[in-house]
Amino acid sequence: MRLAICDEQWLFASVLAAALGGRGHDVVLVTDDAAELLDSVARSRVELAVIDFLGGPLTTAQVCRRLKGLQPAPRVVLLVDSRDDEAWDTYDSGRADGLVNKACGLHTLTAAIGAVGRGSRVSEGWLVGGQRRQHTLVETLTTRELEVLHLVVRGLSTQQIAERLGVSRHTIRTHVQQVLRKLDVHGRGKLARAAVAAGLVDVGELATGDHR
C-alpha cells in the first residue's frame, strides 16, 4: 500500500514510517507540510494518508476534505495525542477513516493503519461511548513526551536526547519527570517496563543501541 505521512514531529513520523515500511508498505512521503502532502497524494496516487493534527493555514479538517475530494480519494487516518472535538467531528463526518491515539504503541498504530487500508473504519486508543475520548490506559502523553519516552527506553542519556531533539538538558529532564508522573513510576529504571505494559512502546524498541 502506498502511504504518505504528514506530522509536525519529524522523529515520530520517521519511526512510524520505518515501522510501516517493515510491514511491506511503500511510504512515498514523510513531511510536515500539508500543501506538500496534498500535492504528493494527487501526483503519486497515494492510497492512504496518515495525518497528525496540524497547525498552520490549513486545518486538519480542511486537509481531510481536500483529500476526500481527489479521484481516487485516499483513505485517511488521523493521529492525535489528546482529546479534541474537531478531530472526532472529522472522523464522525467520514472525512477521516481512522482516528488513533498517538500514545498507543507502534504495533497498535501500524495495525490500525493497516486495517483502515483494508477498508475498515477504526478508532483506537479510546474508551467507547460517552468516555471514548479518554485514554484507555494512562493519562495521555504529549507528542514530545512520547518522543522522549521512545528515546529513553532505547537507552539514550539525557544529554543524547537533548542533542537529538535540539533542546536543553533541563527541558528533557522536565519531560522525563512528566512521563514518570503520568505512568506512575519512580525512576527511569522502571520506565521501560511500565511503557511496554501500557502499550506505549513495543518490546522490540527496548535498548536498541541507537545512540547516534
UniProtKB/TrEMBL annotation:
Domain Response regulatory: 2-117
Gene3D superfamilies (alphabetical): 3.40.50.2300, Winged helix-like DNA-binding domain superfamily/Winged helix DNA-binding domain (1.10.10.10)
Residue(s) carrying 4-aspartylphosphate: D52
MF terms in GO: DNA binding
Residues in coiled coil: none
Key words of the record: DNA-binding, Phosphoprotein, Transcription, Transcription regulation
CDD domains: LuxR_C_like
Pfam families per the UniProt record, alphabetical: GerE
Domain HTH luxR-type: 134-199
PANTHER family hit by this protein: DNA-BINDING TRANSCRIPTIONAL ACTIVATOR DEVR_DOSR
Protein name: DNA-binding NarL/FixJ family response regulator
Organism: Kribbella pratensis
